[in-house]
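How a chain folds remains the central question behind the approach discussed here. In the encoding step, the backbone of a single protein was reduced to a row of integers, each denoting a local shape. We regard such an encoding as a compact summary of how the chain folds. The sequence in question and its structure tokens are set out directly beneath this paragraph:

___
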Amino acid sequence: MQTTPQRSQLFVASCLALLVTSLSFGIRAGILGRLGVQFELSAGELGTIAATAFWGFPLAVIIGGFIVDIIGMKRLLIVAFIFHLAGILLTVFAGGYWSLFISTLFIGIANGTVEAACNPLVATIYSDNKTTKLNHFHLWFPGGIVIGTLLVFFLDKMGVGWQIQVGLMAIPTLIYGYLFSKLDFPVTERVASGVSAGDMYKSLLNPLFIVMIILMFGTAITELFTGQWIDVLLKNVSDNAILLLTIETGIMVIGRGFAGPVVHKLSPTGVLLISAILAAAGLYLLGHSTGNMLFVGAIVFGMGVCYFWPTMLGFVSETLPKTGAVGMNLMGGAGMFAVSVYTIFMGGYYDKLVAAKLPVGDTSDAAMNEARKLAGPEVLNATLVIPIILVVAFAVLFLYMRGKKNTNSVIASAV
């Protein structure tokens, strides 16, 4: 672990930067439906706009992963600050589809750049406790979504417009930009440990790393697609659909806060297996329930997706340390890219479902609401296949890692 007198300050500033990232998800999830109405956008167009954040993210996180060791984490975070501020201002003054598209792209690039710098930063300054500290860092993602959705909910009740709601994100953005400009940064763990760039790139071809990239597709889609679209998909099933996201992410905040004893008790692969089981159960409840049972589904689903993202990153960083910052950022980029593609596809699928469920010749508001009420849960049911596959995959990974650990123990005992 690299010691630095500013370690705590660096961690706090990193959490603030991630807070801005998550506020963008929470607030956008809360206002997505209104943007569609105000600018007369279809669900497919809304899906494309929402997906822009998800593919702007992998673009930035992958490029950032390759250059962070060269230009340093501080310069990368200055870039994130500039894109965050530009994206927020462009959203506030948006006038239609393309301005929303570009502003969302900028915010996605900023979000990816934050992760490209902060994930290796946290792994570097807490190299003796990576998975736990990455969970503590990433609790600010669901934490920001809780704050964002509650802001939307209560400011809506007060009649405050969505432009002001988005503009509030500028406050933590300015704070984290100021803090990072004043702090000194260590070099990344890979550079400090003397692992060459060549060895790092070779380690990316490790079959286990490739498997983890594929599994990241599923964990990211399960968590982020559902969270970003839950208000759209279930708003005609529940009067408080956005509160489902608040409950889900609130559970994630609590879970990540207690990640230390959970990870040490169950092991990262054990955590991932149980997470997949709970995520599948929660998604099933969300897609097959009404009324108060929807909130039970949100709680179970939140428990399931709680540890996915940080534990996937922590597992790779601990098990395949030579992959360095590039490995962690390729994981994040792969996850967000999968979400972007899936979001575009499912936005169009949702439009088709709604059209198919409309009575012939009836496009009244009542008929449209009923069609959406039926279509939303069907999208969730289609997505349910993904965590079911993850249950099987993580069960195999759990057995593989346990067998590998037992083999290593036998070898060590023999020596």
In short: The chain has one domain: 7-414. Residues 200 and 323 are 5 Å apart (CA to CA). The chain has a mean pLDDT of 86.
